[in-house]
Amino acid sequence: MNSLRVRLSASVLLVVVAALFFLSFQTAHRAQSMLEPELERKAASVAGSVASLVDKALGLGIPLDRLVGLDTHLEAVLESNPDLSFIALRGPDGATTYGASTGIDGQGTAASGGKVVNAPIEAGDGTVVLEVGLNPAYARQVVSTLWIDLAIVIFVTAVVTLELIYVGFGVGLYGAIEGVESRLRTIRKGDLRLHPPVDAESEFGRFARVLDQRLDGLHSAYAALRQRAVDGHNQITQQALDLMRNRFGLGEGMIAPPLQALAMRAPLFVFMLAEELTRPFLPVYIRSLATPIPGLSPEFVISLPMITFLAVVALSQPLLGNATEWIGRRRGLMIGSALGILGYCASALVEGLLALSLARAVTAVGFALVFTSAQGHVIDSTDLRQRSSGMAIFISAILVAGLCGPPIGGILADRIGIPATFIVAGLFSAISLGLAYVCMPASTKRSSARGPAIRWKDFGTIVSSPRLAALFFFAAMPAKITLVAFCFFLVPLQMGALGATQSMTGRMLMIYPIAMVLLVPVFASIADRSNMRVQFVALGGIVAGLSSFVLLAHGDAVLMIALMLVGLGLGQAISIAPLSGLVGEVARDLPAEIGESSVYGIFRLVERTGNALGPLVSGLLLGLYGFETTVMIIGAGMAVCALCFFIIVGMVRGTGELPAAGS
Amino acid sequence: MLRLAIRTVPVFAVILGFAVFLAAYMNFSGVRSAYLDIIRSRMAMTAQSIGNDISTASTLGIPLAEQVTLPDLLARQAAADPLTLSIDILSDGGKVVFSSDPERTGSQDAASGDIGAFRYEDHVTNDFGASIGSVVVRLDRSSITSEVDRLGFDILNGAIPTGLVAVVVGSLICLLLFMTLRRQARYAAEGSARNDHIGQVTAEMERLEMDATK
Fold first, then answer.
1. Which of A147, A403, A423, B142 is the most buried (most CB within 10 A)?
2. Which of B3, B7, B20 to mutate to test the interface with A (most CBs of A within 10 A)?
3. Which range has highest mean pLDDT (A384-388, A567-571, B35-39)?
4. Neighbours of B31 (CB within 10 A)
5. Residue A121 has pLDDT above 60, yes or no
6. Residue B95 bridge partners (DSSP)
7. Cβ separation of B26 and A4 shorter than 8 Å?
8. What is the rounded CA–CA span in Å between residue A425 and residue A273?
9. Which range has the top average pLDDT, A105-109, A143-147, A184-188, B19-23?
10. What does the DSSP 8-state code read for residue A105?
11. End-to-end distance of chain A based on CA atoms, in angstroms?
């Protein structure tokens, strides 16, 4: 289904692009006819206002050629009115005495086709004229500025199409189409292994069954011939059959794709999208509701609802894993979505910091429930061989939501306001609830395997291992603190302080997930091949940390923040996959009774604690030192921790170290 | 194929329809914001110009209530713009001291109840930063709203056929993709595909079997 899904998405993208081009062209035309009369009226107001000023000066007896500062005043007027192209004061002889121009019409005339509004002023020796020129491209500019937002809408539409294809088709048809596609793909490549059966009710299901019958016939013939060759001691035929088996995969079968695990993807994606919508404006919104608390800096006060959310998620996730197993994954996800509806709608309506913190706490419980239910569903519906691809479906839904949510949230907040965007997030939670009801099975066969479960008695043993402690507290935790501090807290606040719109902030927050989506698979594969996980974790931490020092460069502040986020994304992309892999590798040093799942459970808890500490640390530092210093302190801390991790893990050699590839 | 079309086409129709609707809304919202911004900046320009005159007169020692040339100025400014309901000068207490609309002079201004007006208020201060009063420019909200409504109607008029064409074309392309996959599947199932590996390996196996039985 992958290639068909991509082709379907590309087709939808193509049609949407064409439609949007046409629509925007029409809108530009309409905007021109609507804005032009208003622009003329406004130009007349500007002309009247400046003319009255000049008239006053001339009335006080100041000669026309001694109006000191008029050029500067005209430049200021022009700068604050992007719809104007020039303002010129022409003497009785028609020569320009004073003027300012945007360069659109460099001569300060109507030669470019823009309309001109005149205001005559009586001077002692004749009439001077103030001319105000309209920017002829302004209406087009208004529409063209929408293009960045439209490009994001197009991109998100394509991604959402990819996500919704499964929902639209349902598991049976989706499985059948996927089954036919995978059979055609493998057969075309000469891979004739047997495929797992698919639902044969639909037309595609019947095609899959016929193809399976042909493959079955071939495999049966192969098995019979091999048996005869073995019985007849026919070495030549056996060798020929071996060659065929190696080349075509005869006598072998394929692992079934984790189709049942897909059921959680749509509700998870939509719920995560709801939360990601709030990223660009949450700190700004909290600041608008915050009232001073004696003894606490305003910046720290702003961080409190964010700390509440992340702390509730961190504390409740380990507990809710078992709870969702008990109440059922679908019900767990639905309850989580319902809490999401409540939390987001309450966030839109609250009027104070405490109420917002409570609303965010409710949302956090919902978030944790949705997360653990979806993760639990993957575990329930996959066997060990399918687990990795099942978890990939789970992770990619979260990543894609992280990519689409902030820019859309920013656009919505700019256009309909922050409270209304919270309501939209609540609406998304409601859709997630509906999707969970429609897509997920009422009860899933429980797998014997469990997700990362924490055995508290193992905690002491695990953290007393120097290598694991270094991995947890010098690599994993600082990485999460830095991520949350930069992306969720500091950057949205600083962008707001720089006067950026929520849309711009949302676009800025896309940088990190884009880097992750593109670079994580690349670095994960290099790290695995070269068996240099420790080096990759340390290098990633140092790159991510040092990226904060780009703020020292003198340049456009927004560009520097973008470069910092690129560095953060690059660094974390280098380290994130090797970091997860190292946990299992280093855990081999531990006594045999401590299970890997317990180690991973504590690893996730440490990461989530890092998440909760992110706003706390950044809020405290921001109140004391301001944005740039705070970012550099956190970045330097991250880099130093990565270096400490490298030294400690390098000094303490483990027993579970893997030999280098090829050695 | 009909069943497949019935199940799949609505999915793509909804996705495409939603995308075009969203784009139409964003186009509308962008032009509406630009339109209202231009009106606001025009109102600001008028208010600031009047405010400067009041401030200059105050600097010369003339209290607001005694700036008797203001009504003529306000009337001239209001007459220049057909959308203007009134231009008012308010005292610090919110009382209308002068207005281009004589009926409003002396009344108490109430911004919250003034739903028929699109308002812009500019505070006037003297050289020491002390408040003198404020200038309120009031435009006819219904004219502005009807212009915005016309814009929405025009964009919707363009978006509906565009959306319908997009839905039809998109659904047809999607159906075409399914039909291509279906044709490939049929050829593979019948063994009539151009490079039928199953057929080739079956033939190879039959040849091996014949060799083995010789």
1. A403
2. B20
3. A567-571
4. 26
5. yes
6. B108
7. no
8. 8
9. A184-188
10. T
11. 39
Displacement of CA B212 from its chain's centroid (Å): 78
pLDDT given for residue A446 in this prediction: 56
Cβ–Cβ < 8 Å for A396, A272: no
Give A 525-584 residues with CB within 8 A of chain B: none
- Do B27 and A27 lie within an 8 Å CB cutoff? yes
Find chain A residues with C-beta within 8 A of B15's C-beta.
Answer: 12, 157, 160-161, 164
Among B39, B147, B204, select the one facing A244 at the smallest CB separation: B204
Tell me whether A220 touches chain B (CB under 8 Å).
no
Inter-CA distances, B14 with A51, A438, A567, B17, B198, Å? 56, 17, 39, 5, 40
Cβ contacts of A16 on chain B, cutoff 8 Å = 16, 19-20, 23, 166, 170
Q: Residue A319's CB: how many other CB atoms inside 10 A? A: 11
Q: In whole angstroms, what is the distance from residue B122 CA to residue A327 CA?
A: 60
- Cα Rg, chain A, nearest whole Å: 32
How far apart are alpha carbons A274 and A469 in whole angstroms? Answer: 35
Rounded (10°) angle between helices A203-231 and B2-59: 120
**A422 falls in which pLDDT band (50, 70, 90)?**
very high
Q: Nearest Cβ partner of B155 from A11, A30, A190?
A: A30
| Predicted local confidence at residue A628, as pLDDT | 92
Which chain A residues are within 8 Å of B189, Cβ to Cβ?
Answer: 207, 210-211, 214
Please give the DSSP secondary-structure letter assigned to residue A549: G
Closest CA to B23 of B158, B150, B174: B158
In the DSSP assignment, the letter for residue A657 is P
Give the one of A35, A41, A81 whose C-beta lies nearest to B81's C-beta: A41
CB proximity under 8 Å: A 130-169 to B: 139, 142-143, 145-146, 149-150, 153-154, 157, 160-161, 164-165, 167-169
The whole-angstrom separation of Cα B5 and Cα B1 is 6
Closest-CA residue in chain B for A235? B212
Q: Which of A318, A320, A319, A317 is nearest to A309 (CA)?
A: A317
The angle, 0 to 180 degrees and rounded to 10, between the axes of the packed helices A511-530 and A384-416 is 160
Any B CB within 8 A of A29 CB: no
| Residue A79 predicted with pLDDT over 80 | yes
Model confidence pLDDT, tens digit, residues A569-621: 999 999 988 888 888 788 777 777 777 777 888 888 899 899 999 999 999 99
* Sheet of A116-123, strand order: A96-101, A84-90, A126-134, A116-123
Average pLDDT over residues A328-339: 94
Q: Which of B23, B170, B202 sits opposite A153 (nearest CB)?
A: B23
Report which of A179, A188, A184 is spatially closest to residue A248, judged by C-alpha positions: A188
CB-CB neighbors (< 8 A) of A171 in chain B? none
How far does the CA of residue A607 sit from the closest CA of chain B (Å)?
37
Q: DSSP labels for A400-461? A: HHHHHHHHHHHHHHHHH-HHHHHHHHHHHHHHHHHHHHHHS-SS-PPPS-------GGGHHH
Rounded Cα distance between A362 and B132, Å, is: 49
Q: Give the closest of A15, A42, A80 to B166, CB-based.
A: A15
Dist. CA A365–CA A436, nearest whole Å: 17
B160-212, pLDDT tens digit by residue?
999 899 888 988 888 888 888 888 888 888 887 777 888 888 888 888 888 87
Residues of B in contact with A149 (CB under 8 A): 26, 30
Mean pLDDT over each residue of chain A, to the nearest integer? 83
A24, A188, A203 ranked by CB distance to B195: nearest: A188
HEC assignment per residue over A551-567: HHCCCCHHHHHHHHHHH
